[in-house]
Structures are given as C-alpha cells and as structure tokens.
Write a structure and sequence with these properties.
Blueprint: H1 2-21, H2 27-44, E1 48-52, E2 57-62, E3 67-69, H3 74-123, H4 139-143, H5 145-156, H6 170-173, E4 182-183, E5 188-189, H7 209-212, H8 217-220, H9 230-234, H10 252-256, E6 289-293, H11 302-316, E7 322-328, E8 333-338, H12 341-351, E9 363-366, H13 372-464
Antiparallel strand pairs: 1-2, 2-3, 4-5, 6-8, 6-9, 7-8
Helix pairs in contact: 3-13
C-alpha cells in the first residue's frame, strides 16, 4: 500500500510540475527526470508496475518468477524510501543554493547600478546649473554631441585609415640635444646652431575626423592594448591603416580606461606642470580645462561674443565632448572645459598653433587647476570606478567558482550513479545465483521424487508376482 501511494504521489507531482512549468522546461530538467525514473526502475528490478483498471490501482509483476502482487517486497520499499528522501534533500539544497545565488546577484546588480548611476550623474552637470555657453549656443546641439559622435564613429570605423602625409615629418619635430636648455639673456637655445631662436610656427597639417578616422592594426591585432596616435592628432601620420595606434577621436568610455600615470598618447605624466603650462600634464590633478590665447574676436559687442562662442565650439567640439566655454574678451582668454582630461589632451595637440576663422595662430595650454570641489568629485569618481571594476571582477570569480562547484557536483553524481549501478549489478548476480540454486534444488527434488516413485512401482510389481 505504501508503494502505491508513493507512485501515485510521484505521478501527481510530476503532472503538476509539468503543467505549471511546461513553458519553462528545458533539456536539463528533462534529463534529470529521465535519470530519476531510470534509477527508480533499477531499484525496482525485476518488478514492473502496471495499472489495473478494474480495481483502479497499481500492481507489480515479476517476469522472472511470473508473480503478481499488490505491494512490493519490504526491502525494495526501503530502498525506494531512501532514494526519495535523498532526492528531496538534494532538491531542497539545490533550490536554496540557487535562491541564495539569485539574491546575491540581484543585490550586486542593484549596487552596481546605483554606483553606475551615481557616476553618470556626477560626470554630468547639474541641470539647474547655467553654463556660459548655453547663453550663446543652441542647447540641443551641445547635448547631442556624444550621440552624434557615437553614431558617426560606427560608420567611419568600417573603412581603413588613410595616410595623412606622404612622408614622415620627424625632421621638423625631432629632438635635438640641448634643445630644451634655453638662455633667457640671448633668447636662444643652447644648441650648435647659435643663431636659432625659439619661434612658433603655424601648423601645416590639421586633423579632420570625418576624413581621417578609420581602423588600423591596433583595432585588428592589438585591441584594448594600444593608445592613440600622436601624429594622427597632428594630422601628419604617414602610416595609415598600418599604424600601430588608434586613428580616431577617443570616446568617454575609452578615456576611462587610460591609466592616470599616462596621457591619451601613452606618454608619462609628471608630478608638476611645466612653468609655461604647455607640457604633457600632471598626474597630481585631473585638469580638464584648456586655456586659449592669441585669437581674434570678430566684432566688439554681444554679437561678437556669441559668434566667438560658436567659432570655438565648432573647432574644438570635433575633438572631444565640451562641458563649458568661458571667454574673457577683455583679456583675450578663452577657457574650454572637456568632459574628461584625456579629451582635453587630445584637443590640445590637435589645435596647437592652428587657426580659427580669422587666420590667426592660437596658443593652447593648460589652465590653472579646477576648483577643489571638481577635483574632489573626480577623485570620488575614480574610487567608485575602481569599486565597479572590483565588483565586476568579483562577480566573474564567483561565477567561475559556481561553475567549478557545479562540475564537482556533476562528477560526484556520476560516481554515485556508477556505485549504484555496481551495487545493482551485484544484486542482480546474487538474485540470479539464488534463482539458479532454487531451480537446482527444485530439479533435485523432482529427481528424488521420480526415483522414489520408480522404486515403489518396482516393489509393487514384485509383490504382484
């Protein structure tokens, strides 16, 4: 009776589970159910279950002994009970582990999303803050610059990078020994050519992102392991698609991957700024603001101020995402603040000694340190970015550990199944041996009975004679 109840409960549970989870069933669940049914059949061997429609209940048939019973033997019932208890305990443990893992993953995802949201909010300006350039420029144009750049970059990166120059111009920009030693009394460098004076020369080449952007060897063979091409920023790279560095304007996500000790071109940064503020930069602060001088205002007045904002934004926005522009017309200064310091580094090299709309030769250098609040925000952003990276790495490690545990569990199950098979085979052999012994004893009894009957017949025949 107990086995019939177990079978009926098991069948009803399987039906309910199939009805509830029928759209969610996959190969793993089907294979688990098949393994479970196979193990039950092996435990019940050689008994087979059948349903009697007349009595509306299950009965069991043994094909070896041709015996039919309503209930299984007690030893098989005990085995089935132990098997079902182990399965229930394993299922409970697995479900608890899965639920705990889901809860942990949900908490981690929520924490990571909060950190990412805070990063995005801190990287962006407060909507209530009034920017200087918003008073003179179209707000929609300034807000959509990242979207425009990303959409345009996908199209531009489908083609190979072109050669910006036929031959390298290393001779013009090469380093000469003693070239950095400057004599303030004679306004000359300490080199062999005593007549050479430090003078600024107008840039002969300029980067056009729409024309020069394309894929290089860095995109094909050294992905995520290279830096951006310095000569590409100057508009004078003669390598083209054979260049080992990136030929494109850096995006914000790429800027976040740059180490603080190096600039966007891979050059090492220093602890302090140069005295003339024209160097590579300092790793002690995250200066994102460029100072522009030697430009010409188109006209005096409000219209000239507005036109100057449009000119500066048009020339510099193609090299990075601009957050704000502040022009001091009375002093001939203009300050451009970019979203990231790497964008400012790239734009600085692109626009050095270039002309705007009035054929001038502008000077681009680093501005003074940003306000302390902005520096503190950048520091916190870096810490939170590190937290995000660590959280992602931790999640990857936990996933690897979980997969490793699953593999170990699968191997253990295989070992257990092999042991069960061995035990079942041994039991089968024992049962076969017992059956053979029974058959042999039955045959011996039959032979003995036949011999006794023959002797009685002989005795009877002798008596009759």
């Amino acid at each position: 009776m107990e086995t019939t109840q177990i079978n009926q409960e098991q069948n009803t549970q399987d039906k309910d589970q199939n009805q509830d989870n029928s759209p969610k069933m996959d190969k793993n669940t089907n294979s688990q159910q098949n393994n479970k049914s196979e193990q039950l059949l092996k435990i019940m061997f050689p008994w087979q279950s059948f349903y009697d429609e007349q009595f509306e209940r299950y009965y069991y048939f043994n094909p070896i002994t041709e015996e039919s019973v309503w209930d299984l033997p007690n030893n098989i019932i005990d085995k089935i009970d132990k098997f079902l208890q182990n399965e229930q305990e394993n299922n409970i443990d697995i479900q608890q582990n899965i639920q705990q893992q889901k809860n942990i993953n949900e908490q981690k995802q929520a924490q990571q999303q909060e950190i990412i949201d805070s990063l995005v909010q801190r990287e962006e300006f407060d909507p209530t803050e009034i920017k200087n350039m918003d008073r003179y420029l179209d707000i929609e144009k300034t807000e959509n610059q990242e979207k425009y750049y990303d959409e345009n970059l996908i199209h531009l990166m489908k083609r190979p990078a072109r050669k910006q120059a036929d031959a390298p111009k290393n001779a013009d920009v090469a380093y000469t020994q003693g070239g950095l030693d400057y004599n303030i009394w004679y306004n000359k460098q300490q080199t062999e050519n005593r007549e050479k004076v430090i003078t600024r020369e107008r840039a002969t080449t300029r980067l056009d992102p729409d024309l020069d952007t394309g894929y290089t060897k860095a995109d094909l063979y050294e992905k995520f392991s290279s830096t951006f091409c310095f000569h590409f920023a100057r508009g004078q790279c003669c390598e083209g698609e054979q260049c080992k560095y990136y030929h494109r304007v850096p995006s914000f996500h790429e800027c976040l991957q740059i180490d603080n000790s190096r600039d966007i071109f891979g050059r090492p940064r220093f602890a302090t700024q140069r005295d003339d503020m024209r160097g590579i930069g300092s790793f002690m602060n995250e200066t994102r603001t460029l100072m522009i001088t030697d430009f010409k205002l188109p006209r005096i007045g409000a219209e000239g101020q507005k036109l100057m904002y449009e000119i500066i934004y048009r020339h510099f926005s193609m090299y990075g995402q601009i957050e704000d522009i502040n022009i001091k017309g009375s002093k001939g200064w203009a300050f451009i603040r970019f979203r990231h310091r790497c964008m400012a580094e790239f734009a600085k090299e692109c626009m050095m000694n270039q002309a705007l709309d009035n054929n001038e030769m502008i000077m681009v250098k680093w501005a003074a340190d940003d306000d302390k609040n902005q520096i503190e925000i950048d520091r916190r952003n870096k810490e939170e970015q590190q937290m995000v990276r660590e959280a992602i790495e931790k999640k990857i490690r936990e996933q690897e550990i979980l997969e490793h545990n699953e593999r170990i569990q699968a191997e253990r199950e295989k070992v257990i199944q092999e042991k069960l098979r061995q035990q079942e085979n041994e039991k089968k052999q024992q049962e076969v041996q017992e059956n053979l012994e029974k058959f042999a004893s039955i045959l011996d009894q039959i032979d003995n009975q036949g011999g006794e009957q023959g002797e009685q017949e002989e005795d009877n025949s002798n008596k009759d004679q």
